[in-house]
Fold these 4 entries.
Entry 1:
Amino acid sequence: MSIKGTPSHQSDPQSKHDADEVNVRPVYQFLLWLGLFVVATYFLVWGIFKWNDARIKQVNEAVNHIAKPKTEQLPPEPRLQLAPGHAIHPLDEGMNYRDSVARALESFGFINRDSGLVKIPIDLAKEILLKRGFATRAMNQATPAVMIPEFSSSGRTEIARDQRIPGGTYTVTGGNVNVREKGE
């Protein structure tokens, strides 16, 4: 039903279309050719990689008697870290060392089985030491008192002559120690 003088919407090609008017064959042909092109390109690139690998293998296997240039020769052992020929990365090496030290500090074991000397984890050793207390030495006449330098001595202390190094002065952390004879 149409108004007089205006065509119906079915006959107007711009308003709607019929399903019979759509041609999908070119769309399917395009998709088919696109898929075939992608597969062909994949096999072409795969073949180029295989050919290149075979060529590199053949070049590497060729024996020549020409000496290698210095840039291709490895330096003698020991090599610096990160130098060509160094087997392990320095960060990995550091972490391996840290882990081995941590395992040693946290493990039980014998140091000397004959004397019964054992190693125990640090935390356990601290607990045992706090429970038992610190070992102290009884102060008597035979044990000399600890010499503490005075403020005005600039770090110098006086010691008995029998503790002196023969033929010179006794040095403590770079400073000379005044030596006096016994009984002075």
Entry 2:
Amino acid sequence: MRTGLISSLSFFWGKICLAIFLICLFGFSFPGLSAAAAPGHKILVSASILPLADFCRHLGGDLVEVQTLVPPGASPHVFEPPPSVIIRAIRARVFVYTGGGLEPWADKLLASRGPGNLEVVQAVQGIPLIQEVEAEPHGEAAHEEHESQEHHHHEGGNPHVWLDPVLAQGICRRISAALIKVDPEHRAAYEANLQEYLQELEGLNREIIRRVSSWRLHDFVTFHPAFAYFAKRYGLRQVGIIELAPGREPTPRHLQEIVAAIKKYGIRVVFAEPQLNPRVAEVIAGEAGVKVLLLDPVGGRPPYGNDYLKLMRYNLAVMEEAMK
């Protein structure tokens, strides 16, 4: 196991070294490959996942060029960045990522680049992270859940903070501050964009409160605890989580207890995610006699694409179908 870990780390650092070499070799020969934007050019922003990239686009408007590092359909939990992604991240003037262990490669990449003139925004910064999976475990599953906390939450907390529109407002404020620091000449534009987008996020928050208030059910079963902050904000409760840690197969006993929770709470749907294999969710749903529906924590698919507000309204509609 130790040999495999050393091999993986060596491979990752090899990719970083290759990327840095390419930057040094070509960075001054081709337009747009230097880390700092030339006067009159757009500010280059790299964001790890699609929702954070969409925040950057709204806040920066025409003044920024935003690159998303984790491609649509990939899970940020297990993503391994190729050299092309590392190069894009190294070139940026502003780097936005979730933190909290969601993108373990990002911290290594930032350490290799050094501080320089890069502004870094970590979405989880300043947010009290949920320390335990928001569920109601039983028996052996409860013991397994307790043992898996450190593994799942990496740095001691659930990192899926962007799925709470209220927390998203704070994230956007920090992104806007980073853009102003890099490009103070356009402070007024960034501040205007921020106020406009904060109003849209608050409108989304009020809409969710209104719609959830009419739901008959408030308990749900999900594949992994991506929607813990959403649930906490709007008075919902995860009573079953299929995958207690990324890539960790649930035990037969744990599956039986999830089926029991579905029947106990009258749950009609098991929520899976498009970035993860739904096979186990389908087995549980078949055993319990319920449906499987998809909640998407990161986006990139029709009908919402890369739009955070559309993504959240899609997820709200799916939950509403299952819980109203």
Entry 3:
Amino acid sequence: MELYVALKLIWAVLLGVLLTGLGVMVGMDMGVGTLLRFVGRTDDERRAMLNAIGPHWDGNQVWFILGGGAVFAAFPTLYATSFSVFYVVMILLLFSMIVRPLAFEYRSKVPAWRWRETWDWAFLISGAIPMFVFGAAFGNVLEGVAFHFAWDGQYFQDGSFIWYVLNPFAILCGAMSVALSLHQGGAMVMLRTEDPMATRAKRIGSVAGWVAALLFAIGGVWVARMQGYAFTAPVDPGMAATPLHGPAVARQAGAWLANFHAYPEAWAFPAIGLLGMILGPVALRAGRPAIGWWLGALAWVGTIFTVGAAMFPFLMPSTTAPSESLTVWNASGSQYNLTWMLVFALIFTPAVIAYTGWAFRVMRGTVKTDAMTHDDHSY
């Protein structure tokens, strides 16, 4: 295998790893924010929940940067096209994300009930919307996106952004993403807070995990009947990084299952995802939130790599010009670019993981409501 092809494959896997890290770590924080109004019934209870993730939430946003940076540098054509296709959705995502740090910093600055209640709604919105958009994006690329390129490489969008948010399959995927986030958030609240918040979080987090499992199963049946994409002619993995004059591609019913039929070991991904969603709530019900958290992380691993295995090598197929679909082969950066990016990724990705683990270990333990109330440095 030539080096350029190997680098493309490595970066396809790394992209999956970074998106998984985003789902697990950012999803946990977003889940706590979404649960805030439902699990916390008093101001002190809600402050305890915020301080449970207070030392970690901003550090976890690094996974957003890593995921976006990986797409920007390793798959620049995908970055440019996807951010254009989903421009309005991205703006919605960014505005909701901007509100989140403001809510952390300003909520407890004023003791007025209406002030804090407003920021609690901000936590709900800034927690649920990003996770919904994250899941809906996977649904959109599975269905295909309406775009094409002119002879000079100019991008043209052929569909409405409203459809990308409101089509039924995207809604299902978005709801599943939110459910996984609520499970992770529920496990975190159980780990870091006292009763009655922990008991309420256990109930909601466990139900959310089972809802995610149900939606995952429904989505699997949906994908099996969906018009997927397949090459109808031989493809050169080392091809130039341009979507123009690409190989012949056709839409075929059940095409997204072709890789699973060709490589049966790939069925391990949906199996891992489904088991994580089923057993995670069982662990929460049994009072084992740490195990439930890790099973929730496995659910994210299984989900994202199931999508990757089904679509490979497609990254963002085109419904209007299938032969111009973006793939691992034609949307990547140069060999020089991918080589240096890999060097930096091998240095900084383990550093981020190590730092995150260290931070959670150092700041472990339960947030005591009484101590937090009299702490000027708490949220």
Entry 4:
Amino acid sequence: MAGSIDGQVLRLDEPLSFWGGFDATSGAVIDRAHPQVGETLAGKVVAMPGSKGSSGTPGVLGESIRRGTGPAAMVVTKADINLVAGSLTAATLYDRPCPILLVDTAQLESLIDGETVIARPEETS
């Protein structure tokens, strides 16, 4: 189902820069100053306060999703046009969706690293 989130949570303590802080080839956080350096985002529901960085984010994120090294979904507390652009690019060009869910801080903090989450949009008739 389009827009469904289903997977293991990887909580990032700080925003991530996909341009320079993430390796699209391996799916790993490579920013040495990031608390989760070395963690792999591939196939995870990445829960983070947001992203940081430049307009290079959509290209890096979209390429990682295309390769299968990017997140399966993202949960963020701050709307981010660069994350949306990367996700839409992968969905449109490669038929590889990466839903993004906007939540408040309390909801983000309730997610436990390593737990499995499932969120499906309500169906209307």
